[in-house]
């Protein structure tokens, strides 16, 4: 079949420059040209330019075949689950995570401390991990020091998040009329008098947007990371400190995370390197009793209607915060008087292992 009048087409293939690199495969590194299994690497330069507070967020739309299913963005919570090539089981489908040769959680890794992320997708690439790698393997390498270079890096950002696509509820007067109409159609007595409907329509009784009442502010997040690295003939070091602060959409919910990682390479002999790593973090989380799962408070707000008032009218009783309960529910009272939960999570690890030797090219 002729193409553009030509019966003969010459195609020249260019050699891929990417084949000169190496891929982390478990406990060793292999040249890309020798890799026949399904392995993918994340572009860390691109990932670090995004304002991500938790490492799971870096997997959103960055690697083919890897999906990050967002659950909630409650301060101090895990943002979602990661699936490699879909969900393969009804039980725990989370991939195995290896950080510097040791099994850890992605939640324990500061995105600013990561050097590379490799994803082993198929059975051939994850075979050395046996059944633990059945759902895929994520291999994370953190930054290490460099001989002859003393470097100080400071990275900081601040972000504001606000809810979008919120529903628009009917006003209080329309709700009263529709409620009365539905009850009359069912042969029941109307709930609201015409006088109360007129007071609501004229503004004597204010409309209440319950979502605005419980969303007292925009959610905020800030991340500050400091890295001090260097090295000489004895070895190299990299000290990384991190601080993450998250604020929820009300005045109580929030979290603070302090982290420290100290990576060292100690030259024992000409061809032997001991890698000694220390990591520790403290996570402080403040939650509402009514919103420990991140959804409960807003589900309550959705069940309210605009005619229901937050407080009783001031009748001279001098009762502060005299909340009205509607079927024993008042989301604003749940924020201010419903109780809180405070969590503190401490974690520390020490990792000693021999250094890896890069393959010769």
Your description of this structure?
This protein has 361 residues and is mainly beta. It is built from six helices and 15 strands. The chain has helices at residues 44-48, 172-185, 194-202, 210-214, 296-303, 331-337; strands spanning 22-25, 28-31, 39-41, 66-70, 80-84, 96-99, 102-103, 114-120, 137-142, 151-161, 219-231, 235-247, 254-269, 272-288, 340-354. Strands 10-11-12-13-14-15 form a six-stranded antiparallel β-sheet, with no helix packed on it. The protein has a five-stranded mixed β-sheet with strand order 3-8-9-6-7, with no helix packed on it. It is elongated.
Q: How do you describe this structure in short?
A:
The protein has 361 residues and is mostly beta strands. It has helices spanning 44-48, 172-185, 194-202, 210-214, 296-303, 331-337, and strands spanning 22-25, 28-31, 39-41, 66-70, 80-84, 96-99, 102-103, 114-120, 137-142, 151-161, 219-231, 235-247, 254-269, 272-288, 340-354. Helix 2 (172-185) packs antiparallel against helix 3.
Helix % is 10-25%
Helix count, per DSSP?
A: 6
Low-confidence stretches: 357-361
The biggest sheet amounts to: 6 strands, antiparallel
Structural category: mainly beta
Oligomeric nature of the chains: single chain
Strand content: 25-35%
Q: Give the CA-based shape.
A: elongated
- Total number of β-strand segments? 15
Task: Provide the gyration radius in Å.
Answer: 29 Å
What is the distance, rounded to the nearest whole angstrom, between the alpha carbons of the first and last residues? 44 Å
Q: Mean pLDDT, nearest integer?
A: 84
SSE order in H/E notation? EEEHEEEEEEEHHHEEEEHHE
